[in-house]
Structures are given as C-alpha cells and as structure tokens.
What does this fold into?
Amino acid sequence: MSQEIELLNKGIHICKEIIDLLEKREDRNVGFKQIVTKNDSSPLPLEYEKK
It folds into this structure.
C-alpha cells in the first residue's frame, strides 16, 4: 500500500513539473508572438527546411 502511495506521489510531482514547463513555454510563446507582431512587416527566417 505504501508503495502505491509513493508511486502516486511521484506521478503527482511529475504532473506538476509538466504543468510548470507548459506554463513557461506558454509565456515564451506570448513573448514570441509579441515580437512577431511588432515586426510583422519583416519576414521571419526559416530555420527548418524540409530535406
């Protein structure tokens, strides 16, 4: 029983870490969108090209 609780606690901790990472990514996306809208007259360089 205690092992199951320990696994549940680890799972909850991992979920919280994922939520934190997603929130940080969302913050970066908002910042990026603001930069893009400020410079929407200039084209963005393509960093990834299909090979």
